[in-house]
Amino acid sequence: MLNQFVQRENHPLPTTDTTFANFAGARYFTKLDANSGFWQIKLSERSKPLTTFITPWGRYCFNVLPFGISSGSEKFQKYMCQILEGLDGVECNIDDVLVHGATQEEHDGRLEAVLQRLVNANVTLNAEKCVFNVSSVKFLGQIVGADGIKPDPEKIQAILEMPHPTNLHEVRSFLGMVNQFSKFTTNLADLTKPIRELLVKNTAWTWGPPQQDAFDKIKKALTSAPILTLYDPNKATKIAADASSYGLGAVVLQEEEPDTWKPVSFISRSMTTTEARYAQIEKEALAVTWACEVTSKTTTLQDETNEIPHQRCSTRTGKLHYTADTLSRKIPESTVQPTVEENEMNAYVLSVINALPASNPRLKEIQQAQDEDEVCKEVKKYCMDQWPEKDHVTPAVKPYWSVQGELTIADELLLKGTRLVIPSRLQRQTLNQIHEGHQGISKCRERAKISVWWPGLSAQIKVMLENCTTCSKYRQQHPEPLMPTPLPQRPWQLIATDLFILEKVTYLLVVDYYSRYVEVVALPKSTSSSKITQALKTIFARHGIPDEVRSDNGPQYHSDEFAQFAKEWGFKHSTSSPRYPQANGEVERTVKTVKNILKKEQDPTKALLAYRSTPLASGYSPAELLMGRKIKSTIPITLPHLTPQLPNQKLFIEKEEVYRSKQKKNFDNRHKAQPLKPLPPGATAYITDMDCTGTVIRPSKKPRSYLVDTPTTVVDETEYSCKTFPRTLIRNKTNRKQHHH
């Protein structure tokens, strides 16, 4: 309970590697053991009551640091480091102190200094555990001596006497003990692989021959562990690293004599699932990087006065790179058995065949087609024998020559990596299978990458999709560059109108293209043509009759009543495309703006007042641009500002052009807009909403529109709703209605 509230010292304990890195040249050793080390640290009066415990004879508390306190090791390590600070040849690990020296005199002098410090600090020693003036000594679970470092025989014997694990807890315990000696074994990551696989989540417990074989080999490897030389920062050092299919290995070597290199430590680890999918060259780079990072604490170059030059990185073939190579691979027991490369290749081939997304009959069909295909037969022959120079192969085989390093034969199947090479006879069928579901080019290419390949596959997928009638029908048109409506010459010259619904009420909206001034009229009961006509008359009586009124293709605007209204009042009525209302963009944007402000403001009249009196990008408000004056709102304003004053039209037009240009640029960049390819007269087009094909007659008077002859009528369509159809896949149309010019 007390440990939950103890503040940790956070004093780092030295690692084994950093400690042993200080033993270079040592030949004489003394190990001192503090007598009940923790009890030599007195507790403060404030801390003593916290250690109270109950006995049959009453309550007691500790006067010294008790064992079991979570911060005890760190506290005692800090205490001993402070006592021995500044002394050379002294290594301290909690209550064990090791004194070492290269000569007898050096050792004795250092030992005398240590003992004097301990006397001054009132630290007592356990005489039975102290070892004086020896050539080798057990320290940190290993034997260190003048000839180097070797594992503790007692711990090795304990591992040798262990029975094989029977559950996951015992597996973790066994691997934990073995990992203490990883620096002494050249292939530990590989040897432990079958046992480590038992720890994988959702893996059923099975202690079979692979695990038992690994268990026995680990014990055998530990009994023949080499003696490692003590690291000397003054000697030439090199790190040899290597990677196999599933493991990394490295060895730190130092030059004892000219051209004689001895190991300082061995390291190895298995790869993660992601790392195992790296290309081999990436695995080798990973091995080098990892080895340098792991050994950096003991091999980092330090020079306080001179600049350290870059270190050389070199490569060696596998047969000359034996030490590090064995760290990442499994060493064959005899030359009769298959080589490591053969074992890895066989396992790789088996996994590839099992992973292919094809049934056995389908694989048999592909194999038979490959055997009958002249190109595949020639490629197989080169894979089995040897590839000639590129100039010596037939033109049909040249596309395979550039990928020869990826071509293999597995179970009589020609593969490129893990993908089946499809012969020409089955390519059309395979293309149709790839395109099942009518996905886009990227998805189809990704689908093909899973299992099949042949030269030109990617380009053929593109052509297939371009000529697919179904894909042509439903393909999304790429956005075109924004075409802003030209700015009218004066206010209320060009207006647009539209209907929108908010909270179950229908509204009529009118916006002026010059000033962006809006009028909003509620139509609570009816949206008939007569209601809209009456509302527009009221608005026109207030602001005047415009030259042109734009609307969508709603039935209210296509009625005879509205046509008569336009004729009597003398304005032109134009409509946007029935299948592309975005062409009337100004009113569409204004509807969104007005709906937002009406939602947020309880009083809709105040919301409209605020909108009409707020300056636009040009610096003028809609009211100023329409009426030539600022309008009074709920915000206080001085009288001079309310004096009528016409806007500076030249300045307004300049700012408006800048604003519209910026809008167009942002739209085009955001949508990556590109002009659609023009449709020539006679081209076959698919009309999306009419779900029919037609023949393009000529461009319409409207921008980006065409007159299209369909089976029933001639329509005026925007190019957005006209999609090109593959001419080769369109049946000849008959009984078309003729259009007379």
From TrEMBL:
**Gene3D superfamilies to which the protein is assigned, alphabetical:** 1.10.340.70, 3.30.70.270, Ribonuclease H-like superfamily/Ribonuclease H
Q: Which GO biological process categories is it annotated with?
A: DNA integration
PROSITE patterns associated with the record: INTEGRASE (PS50994), RT_POL (PS50878)
Pfam families given in the database record: Integrase_H2C2, RT_RNaseH_2, rve, RVT_1
Origin superkingdom:
Eukaryota
Identify a single GO molecular function assigned to this protein. nucleic acid binding
Name of the featured protein: Retrovirus-related Pol poly from transposon
User: What organism is listed for this UniProt entry?
Assistant: Paramuricea clavata (Red gorgonian)
Q: What is the lineage of its organism?
A: Eukaryota, Metazoa, Cnidaria, Anthozoa, Octocorallia
